[in-house]
Design goal:
Chain lengths: ~280, ~280
């Protein structure tokens, strides 16, 4: 496994790999790897000849009041996990290499970026789209792996890849959960014991929505109310949003038809967690 | 020479060329080719193994009041010119293939895009940056050729290529002028005989600025005043802007040091012409 920070070196290596006719699978991450990330990496190893993982905590996707500074950076552990999975290349750039002085170019996916998480995190998805564009150009992968946990992010990147004609195929992999149903997230590390326990309510809430829809409930308002009641029973939970949306457009459904994406963002203390469940009737 | 409109076919062909280890030179155009374009194409033929010219009148870079509909489209003549220069591939996409329903992603180079032409053509450079991003992803050239006539556009694309790590080298080629000094432009075709004659004043004005600077004039205000007087002597000329700027940042100079870019936009009737001259002391 090679670990490279220098953009030019990565570019040279990637071009060499391409010339050899090998396919490249790419998993962009902010580090603090968990089983969710590892599931993407394993898929990249299965699908392609050369698996690249980037570890870069992207400042452009954090708001001024957000957790950029305290975002976990367990680099040694991350590298050990990647080594175990036989990752071929870790791309580990410095912030000043990715955003040098005078940096001025941004990619924006309008519409999808302003709703749900975008409404509460202005500029967040612009930062995501911009860094992913850069990484795609640096790594030039054949396959890009994203997690369904960040459903909105995955949709935005798929839209961007299509709109801007990036020559890459995107695979969105299922949410990985712990035994209590909590979706794995690097931010779970912020939670104390009681918050961790309370956060189990999120998957219970999504599962409740699933049961309601499967039993014929077609009114999103009813579902949202039930979920909200369930979550607000937890002392430390503060709902950011709960929404029942079209899985492609993310527009709120007025009535549930053949499928729905139920998604939510809830704060426990200072820690904001997101989760979602796609439900087909 | 192959002429292809279909994105997937172009992509397949380009990938084949790449696999053969050939280099690709790319000249993006809106058609209505003149000697300016041809100078870029000749350079692409000299530098690379496979020269691609795109002909696409990009609606996203025209304002609602601009000349999208009447923009000249002498396709047969364009194709004949390209054939003569042994262009390898003409990429000739349809608008609905480049901007299908639901298209939502835009690339913006902040700062550089808002000044000069950007101030009078809001959204113009966002449209340019977006379509060039798409074309770079579709064609994946090794070398990209731009004309210095559109100085601001060239700077913006260079900035974008650097900021977003596109794996392409950009060559900006000199302005090509007719025997009277008029910079070649597809829009010159709109001018009637008297306007064509009056438009010769633009290069005279730039040349006057050069003489003034070479004779020690360091005050941009004085130069702009002189140029303006000269241009406004012409009955049909209406100045959009005249500026003496830093050639990299496009910020107006307060005092001229070692170099300056003198640039201007002037309307003759409904036709807006731009020109510029880089002056080193």
């Amino acid at each position: 496994m090679r670990v490279i920070g220098d953009l030019k070196k990565v570019n040279l290596l990637v071009r060499k790999i391409k010339r050899e006719g090998k396919s490249i699978g790419f998993v962009p991450t902010m580090g603090a790897l968990h089983e969710g990330h590892l599931s993407l990496i394993r898929q990249a190893k299965r699908d392609t000849d050369f698996a690249v993982v980037s570890i870069f905590v992207n400042p452009k996707q954090f708001g001024p009041q957000e957790d950029l500074k305290r975002y976990p950076k367990p680099l040694k552990k991350d590298l050990a996990l990647c080594r175990k999975l036989k990752v071929d290349l870790i791309f580990l750039p410095q912030v000043k290499e990715i955003y040098p002085d005078g940096f001025a170019t941004f990619v924006n996916v309008f519409g999808l970026s302003e709703m749900l998480c975008g409404a509460n995190r202005p500029g967040h998805f612009r930062g995501v789209a911009t860094v992913v564009t850069k990484l795609l150009n640096i790594i030039s992968p054949d396959l890009l792996y994203l997690g369904q946990k960040d459903a909105q992010q995955a949709l935005i990147i798929c839209r961007m890849v299509e709109d801007l004609n990036f020559p890459v195929k995107v695979k969105v992999m299922p949410v990985v959960r712990d035994e209590d149903g909590l979706a794995l997230s690097s931010r779970n590390a912020y939670l104390n014991k009681s918050q961790l326990k309370e956060a189990q309510v999120l998957f219970k809430a999504l599962s409740l929505a699933k049961v309601m829809i499967e039993h014929g409930q077609t009114n999103p308002g009813r579902i949202i109310q039930k979920i909200q009641d369930l979550i607000q029973n937890k002392k430390q939970a503060k709902v950011d949003y709960i929404a029942v949306v079209d899985p492609q457009s993310l527009i709120s459904l007025k009535q549930i038809g053949s499928e729905a994406l139920v998604c939510l963002a809830v704060k426990f203390g200072k820690t904001r967690l997101i989760d979602n469940l796609r439900i087909r009737v």
